[in-house]
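Ticket #189: bound-state structure for zinc ion.
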Amino acid sequence: MNEIKQHFSEAHDVLTAFLTNDKNFEALETAGQLMVDALKSGKKIISCGNGGSMCDAMHFAEELSGRYRNDRKALAAISISDPSHMSCVGNDYGYAYVFSRYLEAIGQKGDVLLGISTSGNSENVLNAIKVAKEKGISIIGLTGKDGGKMSAECDVEIRAPHSTYADRAQEIHIKCIHSLIDYIERNVL
Ligand SMILES: O=C(CO)[C@@H](O)[C@H](O)[C@H](O)[C@H](O)COP(=O)(O)O
Ligand SMILES: [Zn+2]
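RESOLUTION: The complex was predicted; output attached.
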């Protein structure tokens, strides 16, 4: 029972730490505005991450292309999560390239990349960031711990204030994702 309760108590502490730093909300607004500007210019948002962060990347994209809270027009967002693409690139070039190769295929100047990594150090996300830079794609990072290598590479980094387990950071990330979608809905239409 205590271990179960501890999950909620830790989550409460991480959320409180995030809430008490106004820089997080400035960063979220900047990130939301970059996304709004891209969508208004006919560009798109591409999201990626591994494991639970892939689920978050998919969650983000489907609520923009599909539906969040209210009926509105479909918005251009896609997660890099096609298993056939990922198995081909993983098999032929290596797992480090599953996201970057996709960005090479469909990324355009003016798009936005949302890279999600609780360590900030996943090589495949870092490689996608590299391609994004080459193509003139803005980079927004959801990170954790010390931000890892992603910290220096993102145009906007939003970092979950945790130093232990990935799940605590992911719980902050999903709140960031929902607040970004809400911001986009309010400002893009
Ligand atoms: O969802 C979880 C943990 O909550 C795991 O599946 C986690 O996402 C995986 O271990 C990832 O490979 C971790 O990658 P990253 O967040 O460090 O980029
Ligand atoms: Zn998880």
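RESOLUTION NOTES: The longest helix spans residues 166-188.
TICKET STATUS: resolved
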